[in-house]
Amino acid sequence: MKVLTAAEMREVDRRTIELGTSNETLMQNAGQRVVEFLADRFAPLTEQRIVVFCGKGNNGGDGLVVARELETHFHPRSLDIVRAEPADEITPAMRDATLVVDALLGTGLQGPARGRTLELIREINSGFPLAKVVAVDIPSGMPSDSGQSEGEFARADATVTFTALKIAHVTAPNCDGMGEVRVADIGSPPALYKEAQLNSTEPSEFRYLFRPRPKESNKGLYGHVLVVGGAPGKSGAAEMSGLAALRSGAGLVTVACSTQNLRHPELMTEALPQSYDALVKTAAHKTVLAVGPGLGSDPNHVALVRRLAVEIEQAAVIDADGLNALAGHEWQAGNRLRVLTPHPGEMARLCGTSVTDVQKERLAASRWFSAKCGAVVVLKGNRTVIAIPDGRAWINPTGSPGMATGGTGEILTGLIAGMLAQFPAAPVEAIIAAVYLHGLAGEIGAAKLTEQCLIATDLLIYLPEAIRACAALSH
Asked: What does pTM read for this prediction?
């Protein structure tokens, strides 16, 4: 699903009007879509006590349409409008409202809310204890182009936005203040924003990857993943990545690590390469490499990673100690597929900055480093970012705090490698699918086991349920 900046949304509105749809019609459509949502979620509206807060701009105009449509078609028990300008009084009777519509500020906000508008935002947050709050387009006071807020913003139990999602709807922490989000069509042709580069991942983009396999299948059709890692004492990291690659559907998986005694007999083993030349021999006839889980910081392995990043022909997913080997090292992937999967600390080391700076601008940091080195960057965390060197990016909506446990990153590395092994002609779809399924399996597992009890390998237990939920497989 497309995600637009405020500037892109203004351009879509401008071009829509040029094509013959008036601003008044867009406003009327927006108000009607909000009312349809209210009728769907809070029926019967005849029993609701509703207060509509209206600002002075287009967002306020949408709110006035909402009030008019409610009065005309639903006749609520009570309906009041509070305008920011002129300053309408909030009466004691309004405090008993059961439903508040926030149409004070929209996506055009520059800087924090001030003055009378800020006072009304505070009223929405504290003055209506019985009310559910529905925001029009975006909660008032929240900047649409950032996951961070400089000032106060209105609470929201639900948000109805128009045409497409905005950055704040999908990036942390602001996305957590939206409640349920509905995207409503108000008449702008999708062709006007189909080239937008930012997206929120949804299963329709990759569902086709999970069509039933041909009956005449064999393991050679689904790729061979080589996991390189697992220095002494850390073999479990490499084994988890290997198992995840298998569970995602790779035909064969070899783990090159410090031990031959892995717990899963389905995994083949090789000695851990100590040089790039040894790696090339081990990687012969392999489809995808997953490099770094438990690799350690031995200088031989640092040199190995730095060389493979720019030389080896196979696609490579680089994680953990592999990323640390690349930190501070200038390199370019060229036309070779490289996927980096840093957590914020690793991303900070790669960018030469602080974790705080990375977390403030997760999307910008991911895009910048992806363009700089020519690799796909998968910045893990709440709303994982997948940045592609050509400028496109996806925000992943799935995941759970229960996944904050050792090994979940190794599972993701294996899932990405396994998906790439199966679908070399669709690398972007394979990567976003792996990230989405990883998070969804975590959600399912946390719901069943609790967030505290979830461990990394549980994700593979719930991966089949995640795949079925996304793919709607039929047999």
From this structure: 0.94
